[in-house]
Amino acid sequence: MTTSLPVNPALSRRGLLKFSFGASAFLATAGLGASLSGCSAQTPASGFITLRENDLPILHALIPVVLAGTQAADNREALLRGLDSKLGALSPAMLKLTRQLFDVLAMALTRGPLTGIWGSWDNASSAQIEAFLQRWQDSSLNLLRMGHASLLQLLHMAWYELPQSWAHCGYPGPPKV
Q: InterPro entries given for it (predicted)?
């Protein structure tokens, strides 16, 4: 059986490239605009080295969804402290990219269209957050897929570093020396 492709596909390769370029430019501009306009404070939140006040609601909303089935919600403060420590050890360039990701997620102008979460992170349901994560994971835009992977890696890294997580996955801990 032979299948034939449509003569005029709905979205050509050139159209897809134009769309991807436009979306990437939009995201980069939004992140840069947030940084330059002062929407993203560069000062850390009280008690943190790197995490800012605008980053905390995002992380508080993501932790129970990304780390569902663990006791991460019960150890949220320790997890945030570990994440903060890890972010503080990043190179300046990587920290800047991570902050831009959080800025895009924090700004209402970009959060709604990109995540589907139109209200604040505090009011987002688990289903909305799961839909947002799935949307970014399956996105045709590499930038969104990288953002998804970064969020998951950051949270998993911070969680599995904590001794409270070790028993859950059967790890007895590092050998005693």
A: TAT_signal
Contacts of 126 (CB under 8 A, 6+ apart): 64, 65
Q: Which of 145, 148, 161 is nearest to 83 (CA)?
A: 161
Backbone angles phi, psi at 38, to 5 degrees: 90, 5
Question: Is residue 119 classed as helix, strand or coil in its secondary structure?
Answer: coil
Q: Mind listing the pLDDT tens digit for each residue in 101-141?
A: 999 999 989 999 999 999 999 999 999 999 999 999 999 99
CA angle 143, 43, 86 (to 5 degrees): 60
Does residue 68 sit in helix, strand or coil? coil
* Whole-prediction pTM: 0.75
Residue 135: both structure tokens together: 């949307």
What is the token pair recorded at 131?
């839909």
pLDDT for 60-106, tens place per residue?
Answer: 999 999 999 888 888 899 999 999 999 999 999 999 999 999 999 99
Q: For 38, left (φ over 0), alpha (ψ -120 to 50), or beta?
A: left
